[in-house]
Design brief:
heterotrimer; B: 439 residues; alpha/beta; Aspartate Aminotransferase, domain 1; seven-stranded mixed sheet; globular; C: 476 residues; Aspartate Aminotransferase, domain 2; 3 domains
């Protein structure tokens, strides 16, 4: 189970990479993509997002899972590559960001790589 | 009688294997208060022959009209014998939903053909594998367009009243508002539509041809709606689509309709097929079953139910629709019918409906006191005619001659339908009888 | 196997119509279709051969054992096809004068009466097109009932976690909030239910026997608790085949029910439809039923609109020719046949479970009703072979797999519903086959993740189908 040292994590297995104090990228961890299986479709909302609330969802053949927003802010951009090629979320979970959030005003309790590791052992 | 296979002896042996002595022992979990302590108050069972005879005597009480000039949502067309023969094959009739693709390729390929034909007829990018009927298709299309900030739908008053009733029921369930667009000269009033479009409007629904048989300017309607970011749902009669401008060509976002006229019997109105087709951009919002092409592990092309993550068995309360099944056998029959008619046959049938309807209209309106209710409009298959004597009187006379006349729209207004199942001789007879009624 | 388009040849014809004398009418350009259709062109023999090939690639109840849990794949009697094909039923228009369709209305009314008796309901609407459609309608009734009473606070519907997905979806379609309650030992957890009930509860949706094939002996307490809280009880009738003549939802305390005519009442599934979903209710809800409802007075049948009807859920009067089949079936069965049908459905299921439980784990090791669920979790852990693999291997033995991965509360689930129309010999054979497959799994004789091996197709790639959907044939 890969864990990217430069990311912070939520308990629901999303990762956050800070670009600056108010901007970040959001994605799904290796643990998340493995649990979901082959991802067939990704859908991300537009506009405002709120920490702990649903940001979008990701579909595999037999299931659909909500993606929870780690932060409160505005979704500035959705990664077209993730939408066009959902398999990239499986093959490169840390390189395939889902959205970029700006004007971040609040965040969930985020774990660093070391604190996140035990959660991937479940 | 019953269809149980095991004899009493075999049943006893099976019970013994379970350590039980009677069938009653199987129901020990049923509390006393929920047990039925008397015999069911149903007639005693009979042999299949007696059951058949009883149903037959009921069927004989129904009047089968040799000649029908009534449509309004259910149409008599001629159905090639091969269609019935093929759709009665037991594999198609007795199978369930093709969840196990390996042993259901016949059904899946049939549905894939259905989707292809519907997309083709409507001029759209994709279609699903059918929903319950044309009315429900319209309601599902509405649901596709609604979102929390757009809960208003505009509906033309020129649509089939059955569809309107169903839209109202579904709109109420969703908490959506339905607003009627008035009719002007027998078609949707586009000026009124423009005034009604607003920021809360999700979509507009109209039909082409509409309930009165009139063709509408869907291009203009779609342009007006799109200018205000409102989606366009068009209800169509598939038999007109060989010749009439398609919803795709007019710019509609979603095309819906009923497949009864594509090779299904009248069947007293049901079951039938609902079809839905849309643009690629809205593909993932389509409810219901969808069949996709893929390859198996050996690389052989095959078909499979796909995009299932939209559906109720996965999304549960987040599904946009609870629809679980499709009208598979009806849709399959539509497919075989369209394949049997083929490109030329479908065009021929459609052209006869158009031509014979115009022939009948011309002959009827040549009679004193008869006139088209909407003479400025183009019509297809059906037309509304004003009559000099009450429609009820006319239909009484026609009935006595084995003809089901047009539908009474008003005391002296009748909706006449002519399909390729009506011959020119039948039209002559109709006209002669109308002459007699006046006298 | 070709698609019809791949067998098409320009100029081939199957159907020709009678010639008409009148010259073809031309639509003005503004209303005219711009490009022609791409419908195929085949002769009648090509048409028939093509679809005959399709029929060979389709497994139905007529082909072999089809124990698909929750679907009641019982044998479809052929006499039903004959009555449904009677001209007096197939060739009547829904908008004919009622006096000319008294036979058809009589069929509908008799069916309505029989179904009321079977379920303990007072009135029965016949318009829904399918089970899920019936569920949607039932929830419309509950919504209408509370709205009519002016009780707008009741927005919640309680549904057990074992329920079929159509239940919460139908509730959601009516604007209700779904409250899911956990099961305990396979049945409704009464404490969880009590905790979930309050004055915002609109109702409960329940199947009994439930999706695990278990009869909930707490059913009377369940419905009473819901009623005490001011809610209504809705019965999902998908599993009625277990209890006809033995227990009735009306006596269990339910206020409205839906039935699946294509399950319990033998009408064929047609590859996924058409079915029909009757909607029954107690007298106090009859005023809300969708129109039309068939009524009888002095021997005359009419279509009526209930006083506070929720409106219509589909066009015209219902899936009439499915109703004809259901009534034919009920006529043959009669009171005694209906009860025996259920008893044998339950006997067959218990017998099959008994044959399998030495190697497979029943999710609940107790008397089941007409279906049972096995959990193959242990087999997966020990041998790596999943429920899907076992199910797919059954195809090589010419049996249709059972339902896989449902209900979701059981891991690696396989749900079997043999129905009453299977013989002991078939069940014994199925038991042997499943033992053989078990041995193949634990001995690793065969890579079951690649099963089936003997059918023409094996393991379609569902991932690619969903990632890059191809939903129609493209003409080149």
């Amino acid at each position: 189970m890969k864990i990217d040292e430069s990311c912070f994590y939520t308990k629901t297995h999303e990762w956050v990479k800070w670009i600056d104090g108010k901007t970040c990228l959001v994605g799904l961890s290796d643990y998340a993509q493995a649990a979901l299986g082959d991802i067939v479709f990704v859908s991300i909302s537009e506009g405002a997002c709120t920490k702990g609330e649903v940001l979008g969802d990701v579909e595999s053949v037999k299931a659909v899972s909500d993606i929870y927003s780690p932060v409160t802010g505005t979704i500035a951009e959705v990664n077209q590559k993730a939408l066009d090629d959902p398999a990239s979320v499986n093959t490169d979970p840390y390189g395939t960001w889902l959205c970029r959030v700006e004007n971040v005003t609040d965040k969930e309790e985020l774990l660093d790589a070391k604190a996140y590791e035990p959660l991937t052992k479940e | 009688m019953d269809y149980i296979v095991n004899t009493d002896q075999e049943q006893q042996e099976m019970l013994a294997a379970l350590g039980l002595s009677s069938l009653e022992d199987l129901y020990k979990d049923v509390p006393e208060g929920a047990k039925l302590k008397r015999k069911l108050n149903l007639p005693e069972g009979v042999s299949e022959f007696e059951a058949y005879d009883a149903l037959k005597s009921l069927a004989l009480q129904d009047k089968v009209y040799p000649v029908i000039f009534r449509g309004a949502g259910c149409y008599r067309h001629r159905i090639p014998a091969a269609v019935r023969a093929i759709t009665s094959l037991p594999g198609f009739v007795t199978a369930y939903t093709p969840y196990q693709a390996e042993i259901s390729q016949g059904i899946l390929a049939g549905m894939f053909e259905f989707q292809t034909m519907i997309a083709d007829l409507t001029g759209m990018d994709v279609a699903n594998a059918s929903v319950y009927d044309g009315c429900e298709a319209a309601a599902e299309a509405m649901i596709m367009c609604l979102d929390p900030r757009h809960m208003r739908m505009l509906v033309s008053a020129a649509i089939n009243p059955e569809v309107l009733k169903v839209l109202k029921t579904y709109a109420h369930s969703q908490g959506a508002e339905l607003v009627m667009i008035p009719v002007r000269d027998g078609v949707t009033d586009l000026a009124a539509l423009n005034d009604l479009l607003d920021d809360a409007t999700a979509c507009v629904y109209s039909e082409n041809p509409n309930y009165y048989g009139n063709l509408e300017d869907v291009r203009a309607l779609a342009a007006a709606a799109h200018a205000k970011n409102v989606k366009v749902i068009t209800g169509v009669n598939p038999t007109t689509l060989a010749l009439a401008r398609t919803p795709g060509e007019c710019g509609s976002d979603i095309a819906v309709g009923d497949g009864q006229s594509l090779g299904l019997d009248l069947n007293f109105g049901g079951p039938t097929t609902g079809f839905m087709a849309t643009r690629t951009a809205l593909m993932r919002k389509l409810p219901g079953r969808i069949v996709g092409q893929t390859a198996d592990r050996n690389g052989s092309r095959c078909f499979v139910l796909t995009l299932q993550a939209r559906e109720q068995h996965i999304r549960r309360e987040k599904a946009s629709s609870s629809i679980c099944s499709n009208q598979a056998l009806c849709a399959f029959r539509n497919t075989v019918y369209l394949a049997a008619l083929g490109k030329e046959g479908f065009r021929e049938m459609s052209e006869q409906c158009l031509t014979l309807a115009h022939l009948a209209a011309a002959k009827i309106t040549a009679l004193l006191g008869y006139s088209l209710a909407y003479p400025q409009q183009e019509f297809f298959l059906e037309f509304a005619v004003k009559t000099p004597v009450p429609v009820s009187r006319i239909n009484e006379v026609l009935d006595a001659h084995g003809i089901l006349g047009g539908l009474e729209l008003a005391e002296k207004e009748m909706l006449v339908c002519v399909t390729e199942a009506n011959s020119e001789a039948q039209i002559e007879t109709l006209v002669n009888l109308l002459k007699e009624v006046q006298a | 196997m070709n698609l019809i388009y791949e067998e098409s040849h320009a100029g081939h014809r199957c159907t020709r119509f009678a010639k008409i004398a009148a010259p073809a009418y031309q639509l003005p350009e503004k209303f005219r279709r711009q490009s022609g259709t791409n419908l195929p062109e085949v002769s009648e023999v090509e048409l028939v051969r093509h679809y005959t090939e399709y029929s060979k690639q389709t497994f139905g109840v007529d082909s072999g054992f089809y124990p698909l849990g929750s679907c009641t794949m019982k044998y479809n009697p052929k006499v039903n096809e004959e009555t449904a094909a009677l001209e007096g039923f197939t060739d009547i228009h829904p908008l004919q004068p009622e006096s000319t369709v008294q036979g058809a209305l009589h069929v509908m009314h008799t069916l309505r009466t029989d179904l009321c008796e079977l379920t303990g309901m007072d009135e029965m609407g016949l318009t829904p097109a399918a089970g899920a459609h019936g569920e949607f309608t039932g929830l419309c009734l509950i919504k209408a009932y509370h709205e009519h009473r002016g009780d707008t606070r009741r927005k919640k519907i309680i549904i057990p976690d074992s329920a079929h997905g159509t239940n919460p979806a139908s509730a959601h379609m009516n604007g209700f909030e779904v409250v899911s309650i956990p099961s305990k030992d396979g049945v409704v957890d009464l404490d969880a239910l009590a905790a979930a009930l309050d004055d915002t509860t609109a109702g409960l949706m329940l199947t009994n026997p439930n999706t695990l094939g278990l009869y909930d002996s707490g059913i009377l307490e369940i419905t009473e608790k819901v009623h005490q809280a001011g809610g209504l009880c809705y019965y999902d009738g998908a599993n009625l085949n277990a209890i006809m003549g033995i227990s009735r939802p009306g006596d269990m305390g339910f206020d409205c029910v839906h039935l699946n005519l294509h399950k319990t009442f033998s009408t064929p599934h047609g590859g996924g439809g058409p079915g029909a979903g009757a909607i029954g209710c107690k007298a106090f809800l009859a005023q809300y039923l969708p129109e039309p409802v068939v009524a009888e007075k002095d021997g005359v049948y009419t279509l009526t609109r209930p006083e506070h009807s929720i409106g219509k859920v589909r066009g015209f009067w219902g899936s009439f020719n499915v109703m004809v089949r259901a009534l034919t079936y009920l006529s043959v069965l009669g009171a005694e046949g209906a009860k025996k049908t259920s008893e044998n459905a339950v006997l067959n299921a218990n017998y099959l479970m008994h044959l399998l439980k030495d190697v497979y784990q029943p999710a609940y090791d107790r008397t089941c009703m007409h279906e049972f669920v096995l959990s193959l979790e242990k087999l997966k852990e020990e041998s790596g072979v999943s429920a899907m693999d076992v199910a797919k291997r059954m195809i090589d033995y010419e049996m249709h797999p059972p339902t896989m991965y449902f209900p979701m509360i059981v891991h690696e689930a396989l749900m079997f519903e043999p129905t009453e129309t299977e013989s002991r010999a078939t069940l014994d054979h199925a038991g042997e086959v499943l033992h053989e497959i078990y041995d193949e799994a634990v001995n690793h004789d065969l890579d079951l993740s690649k099963a089936p091996y003997m059918s023409e197709y094996s393991r379609p790639d569902e991932v690619t189908a969903a990632r890059h959907p191809i939903l129609k044939y493209e003409h080149h």
